[in-house]
Design a protein that fits this description.
197 residues; alpha+beta; eight-stranded antiparallel beta sheet; 3 helices
Amino acid sequence: AQASLAYAWLKIVYSNSLSEQSRCAMGISSSLNAKEGGRRVVVSGAGEDEANGLYVETVKPHDGKPQFVYAGRSRCNAPIVLWFASSGEQWNIRKDVPTISKAPRTFDGVLGVVSSTGKHWYIASRSTGADIDGSGDVPPTAGWAVSARAGERAMGEAAYGIGPAPFVKLLADGEPVPEDVIRDMEERGAKYIADGE
């Protein structure tokens, strides 16, 4: 029942909250749709509280390994993705935040374009102490570190840090999502909605 709850959250809160046109304009790939019966991971202990919570496997893998998308409501309804990059042989947690920037011309009377700025929060690789080889095709449980790019923003450097790095737990098939994870995700989602984020 809880596994289907995660997919219901993703479907209602994430996928259905944006039209396909909006998703394309924001640069959000349809490959981030949840895979029915896909694996689930819980991210916890991250200093960036928005990174904590339940992630579900997506339909399409990235660089030969599955990717996972946050199953709750995030600020600005932006996707938070846990994915592997073969070029750096590392797992990553990032948030793709849509932004409006000024454009030199108007489009349908509106000055500005929608672009995306990524927030590359955390990484796990051999150099951070993660067991990349032993974890197979899923993210490692430990050995995560704050990305050197975590402070980069479209308008300069962030004025705060996001440590500590998280831990990741792969949930067994049928294993319930911990109640505190569900409660935390629901409370943060409600706050983002109430604050208009």
